[in-house]
What we know:
Blueprint: E1 3-4, H1 7-26, E2 38-43, H2 59-70, E3 74-79, H3 82-90, E4 98-102, E5 111-112, E6 117-118, E7 121-126, E8 144-147, H4 153-159, E9 166-169, H5 172-180, E10 186-190, H6 191-198, E11 210-212, E12 221-226, H7 230-245, H8 248-258, E13 262-263
Parallel strand pairs: 2-3, 2-4, 8-9, 8-10
Antiparallel strand pairs: 1-13, 4-12, 5-12, 6-12, 7-10, 7-11
Amino acid sequence: MPLLFSSSSLLRALRKWALLLNVALLSCCVTFSVRGETLHLISILWPPYASQFLPEQGASVAVVKAAVRAMGHDVKVDFYPWRRAIKLASNPTSRYLGILPVYDHHRGQFLLSAPISYSPLGLIERRFHPISWLTAQDLRQYSLATVRNDNNARVLDALLAPQQRLMIATSDLHNVKALASARIDAAVMDTRVFTYLLRSPAVASFHDALQVNKKLLANPGLHVAFQLGAKGRRWQRILDQGLAKINVPAVMQGYLGVAMPVSSE
């Protein structure tokens, strides 16, 4: 799948981001006496957090790779649809020991790492028709749209009031287009996903017409969900130790700032 970017500008951007990542890793200053291993993980397609079409396979994957490498190991990430990914990550005979990025309501079904990022969930609105609200009850007067799946369903249920007028769509891109054409009042989505979509030619014409509401709905953490059992606990501990050694916000913001070309899909 082609990416829409200038090769020279992307190379410059990636060099800057790679330098930032190297600084984060060098700050660990750890000498390892054991041979490194490879952690196999599964991810869903969710740019800019995770995508096989992005550098380092996305921002969240970049954070996990940096943390695991800081502990002297490596990471290989493959991509599957959500339900297939959950099935593989839960299978004790699978080579995959976890899935990312997930919200924390998967605790109990999996062993969750420390946060690898946060997911700012907000309302995307038309610039000249902003949404005015204080509580979830206030939103009931508006028609909203979102993408609902097995990963975010409980998060959305906790945020929105009962009887909320809510259209379920198959993609955030569909909701952005529906909002721009005034078919809905606002779209509920991760604001970083919205920023990513604005770089796509498919919605470039809406750039000045849409904005993020000034009040966030929530900012839940994103995690790696490891298999229950000894192997999962070991890698959970390794990743958590690695996350403590790197500058996670610097890696995340550095990636989002310079290394995020947009797919033509």
